[in-house]
Write a structure and sequence with these properties.
Elements (H helix, E strand, L loop, with lengths): L13 H17 L4 E3 L5 E6 L6 E5 L2 E7 L1 E6 L2 E6 L2 E5 L3 E9 L6 E7 L2 H8 L14 E5 L2 H12 L7 H18 L4 H7 L4 H14 L7 H8 L3 H12 L3 H20 L3 H7 L5 H12 L3 H9 L17
Antiparallel strand pairs: 1-2, 2-9, 3-8, 4-7, 4-9, 5-6, 5-8, 7-10
Helix pairs in contact: 1-3, 2-4, 3-4, 5-6, 6-7, 6-8, 9-10
Length: about 325
Amino acid sequence: MRKPSKSAPPTGNRPRELRTELARKIASFVGSSEKLITGIPGLLLTRRTAPTAPAAATYEPSLAVVAQGRKQAILAGTTFIFDESRYLLTSLDLPVICNVIEASEDVPYLCFVLKLEMSVVRELLSREEVPQAQSDSPAMATGETTAELLDPCCRLINLLNTPQDIPFLSCLIQREIIYRILRGSAGARLRAIATLGDQSHRTAKAIAWLKANYAKPLRVDDLAQIASMGVSTLHHHFRALTAMSPLQYQKQLRLQTARGRMLVDGLDAASAAFEVGYESASQFNREYSRFFGQPPMRDIRTLRSPGAPLLELVSDRQSAS
């Protein structure tokens, strides 16, 4: 696909036309920047002109629709590729390793990212016409990017041209987008997580607590009480959703946060370690080296060096951008 222009998209199949239109709109609004936090609640537009180095990030519940290029997210060893043909759906806060793998000046990576509000998901699920299905997949999945999904994505971006319409129309179009996701197979886990009383929903409560309190000592018994489950049941469902144990989840959140504090805010390794909940700087150094491949300060120096590849940082909003 060529670089988006203001010319009309070629005639042909509907999904290709809509993808071309979406790419043109994203490129127009983002311009030469790498991202745009729009005036539409929950909508982020991103652009990259070169592949990026793998970086740790925590993806929040969101939908990522790629108009051009390709990106990957690795969750506990499983790789999810999302590109022009497949979107990425994240149903929980999940720590991943991610990077853009296809992008250039002529064909930049362009992505539409919409944060998901569980209250809206639950409202749609209360209607009989949304199918219900069970899922054993983790809380991250890819699905086919259809014309029925691309069309409301384009219409949502169009609202940036008429800001006065955003307060009323954006919520209606976002509901249509979520409806399209819920009707597809990739939305099965999202349906389970949003369903009150479901095991996935109760496990999600424990995951949300752990994400908000990662710096505190982890007591799995307390976590099980939050989820109203037995410890073994919690472990089973926690791993099913996140592909990792509660302790591994906490460790990744701690290490990612510490890395960000050192890289962005200039903290030294010991200060970052204690801030994210480590009681031992040496333990932090060991676990950091195993996860990122080298000791903390050497890693930060490498990331800051002039010859270092672009890093896929997620800062203002942690989503699959």
